């Protein structure tokens, strides 16, 4: 059962940060509430000490999607539905657009915010692999400080991040790539909608004359938290992107995943699926290159 709580609606960021700094042990930010409310209802330990919920949904500083010369800045309280309506995201960050389109259902996407997704940091958070692969950084504020760190650095363990209790994520910045990337995002769930991800993979490839110039690989759900595979990415650079390479990379990715997670009861079916999906994604990316999509 949801306990009785104070819900406070600050009008601006400064007011929210002041409220948070006064009671940081017993206060928590709430945005869409689609993780917190079910969590309170299930009496999860990580929500037990909350007495005040500080609702950031109407704070103007956390809203808006702004395109500048070198990046796009997404307000932390933008919902997945807002993101899906943005042309820059759709055209220049299609993997984020695709990840957003698979979150929950229309009702969930209308409430669920992008920051709520990665601050909660469930292994199956769908925006994480796409944001990692685009090298997203986060602007974070407290009453006395402002900083910007990469999402990769921010995520520490399942349901844990480097966010301090008196801090709020204000923006997600995604730089425009200086490469000619083509990419794919894949989500495997048990059904088509309102499905928790079992495997997510994101791939971005820049290849010229069939040689890999740069590749970025990220996973979610199949690893304890969303993760980049930097060593594997380095190994791929300069390789000829023939069929054998696609098979080798797919096998190596499955091996790396075992290294991170260890063997589990689900490995027997997940690892062959990861290999096959990775191979198919590389084939799709290749044909997008060929047809100039
Ligand atoms: C039926 C259902 C289906 C779902 N399906 C999916 C799915 O397919 N894919 C998926 O990835 N997720 C799914 N989710 C989970 C959830 O919808 C997402 O994780 C969502 O993005 C969380 O955002 P929120 O705004 O609702 O977060 P909230 O519940 O409001 O908050 C989540 C966490 O983020 C913190 N937080 C929020 N905003 C900020 C901020 N600006 N600064 C600091 N901390 C902040 C909160 O304090 C809290 O710890 C589903 C949930 C439900 C109930």
Task: Note the topology.
Layout: E1 6-8, H1 13-22, E2 27-30, H2 36-41, E3 52-55, E4 65-67, E5 71-75, H3 80-84, H4 87-92, H5 94-101, H6 106-111, H7 114-120, H8 127-133, E6 137-141, E7 146-150, H9 151-154, E8 155-157, E9 160-161, E10 168-175, E11 182-188, E12 199-208, E13 211-220, E14 227-228, H10 230-236, H11 243-261, H12 267-290
Helix pairs in contact: 11-12
Bound molecules: flavin-adenine dinucleotide (FAD).
Residues 28-36, 38, 56, 62, 76, 103-104, 108, 111-113, 115-117, 119-120, 124-126, 163, 168-169, 194 line the site of flavin-adenine dinucleotide.
Ligand catalogue: flavin-adenine dinucleotide
Arithmetic mean of pLDDT: 93
Q: Tell me how many strands there are.
A: 14
Largest sheet: 5 strands, antiparallel
Give the CATH topology of the largest domain.
Uridine Diphospho-n-acetylenolpyruvylglucosamine Reductase, domain 3
Task: Please describe what this structure looks like.
- The protein has helices spanning 13-22, 36-41, 80-84, 87-92, 94-101, 106-111, 114-120, 127-133, 151-154, 230-236, 243-261, 267-290, and strands at residues 6-8, 27-30, 52-55, 65-67, 71-75, 137-141, 146-150, 155-157, 160-161, 168-175, 182-188, 199-208, 211-220, 227-228.
- Helix 11 (243-261) runs antiparallel to helix 12.
- It is an alpha+beta fold.
- It has three domains: 6-55, 2-Layer Sandwich (Uridine Diphospho-n-acetylenolpyruvylglucosamine Reductase, domain 2); 60-175, Uridine Diphospho-n-acetylenolpyruvylglucosamine Reductase, domain 3 (2-Layer Sandwich), CATH 3.30.465; 182-290, CO dehydrogenase flavoprotein, C-terminal domain (Enolase-like, domain 1, 2-Layer Sandwich), CATH 3.30.390.
- The protein contains twelve helices and 14 strands.
- Strand 2, helix 2 (36-41) and strand 3 (52-55) form a beta-alpha-beta unit.
- It is globular.
- The mean pLDDT is 93.
- Strands 4-5-10-6-7 form a five-stranded antiparallel beta sheet. A four-stranded antiparallel beta sheet has the order 11-12-13-14, with helices on both faces.
